[in-house]
Specification:
By secondary structure, the protein is α/β, with parallel strands linked by helices. The protein contains seven helices and 13 strands. The chain binds fe (ii) ion (2 copies).
């Protein structure tokens, strides 16, 4: 059995010490791996990442993360990555890793993802350079996710995102902002590469469950949505 714990949007700030740690107590008895679906910090400051690293110190399982939009706010992604990776927390963007757990190999491919919207209400790669850059950014990140999924040699493959690949798990958010919460391009990438599960955050008022057009389960694990320290997903290694 492969057991994966996941949570997004922990939004750790300088005053967050002691907030996550109690909920993570005993996690290593229940899960083999912890995934963090972005918005790790409040404003993307290395000092906040150090607080997060402190909260996760001794959690007892490998921790794999992607960034969210909040983690980009002060343009210090490299420094934040350094703080987290020094603490053993792996940060993915267009790459992946395979972890041997519970008698199987679980592969995680990660990207922050980006917005653009969904069928019938999406931005297009046309017009002003700013709009083209917006959509091209999502295309680039989706392509990175697809390559990373393709490259995973694992029994189970998980796509870890911050932005949503589907509108379904955004239900509860104002429809006017769906285009800023995710993109169908991410779902297309996942469906082409294949995966067993897609996890995302970002939509604090969204819904828990959806699926890509290809039928791959999608779960919004934003902390306010799951209402718990983490959600647990269990897989048989062999089907
Ligand atoms: Fe968030
Ligand atoms: Fe976010």
């Amino acid at each position: 059995m492969i057991r994966v714990a996941a949570v997004g949007d922990v939004h750790v700030g300088l005053d967050s010490a002691g907030r996550l740690r109690p909920g993570l107590a005993g996690l290593a008895d229940r899960a083999d791996l912890l995934l963090l679906a972005g918005d790790l910090t409040h404003r993307g400051r290395p000092e906040e990442a150090a607080v997060l690293a402190g909260e996760l110190d001794g959690v007892g399982v490998p921790v794999v993360a992607v960034f969210g939009n909040h983690d980009y706010h002060t343009d210090q992604q490299a420094a934040v990555t350094e703080v987290l990776e020094r603490a053993g927390i792996r940060v993915l963007e267009g790459d992946g890793l395979v972890v041997e757990v519970g008698g199987g190999r679980v592969g995680v491919a990660g990207s922050k993802g980006f917005g653009g919207g969904f069928a019938g209400a999406c931005a297009s790669d046309f017009g002003e350079p700013e709009m083209r850059t917006f959509v091209q950014t999502t295309k680039r990140l989706a392509a990175g996710l697809e390559r990373a999924l393709d490259g995973l040699a694992a029994d189970r493959r998980i796509a870890l995102l911050h932005y949503s690949p589907v509108a379904e798990t955004l239900a509860g958010e104002p429809p006017e902002i769906f285009a800023f919460l995710g993109s169908y391009l991410l779902a297309e990438a996942v469906d082409r590469a294949g995966a067993d599960l897609v996890l995302h955050g970002h939509a604090h008022r969204g819904s828990r469950a959806g699926a890509t057009p290809g039928g791959i389960p999608v779960r919004n694990v934003a902390a306010p949505v799951i209402g718990a320290a983490y959600e647990l997903f269990c897989f048989d290694a062999d089907g």
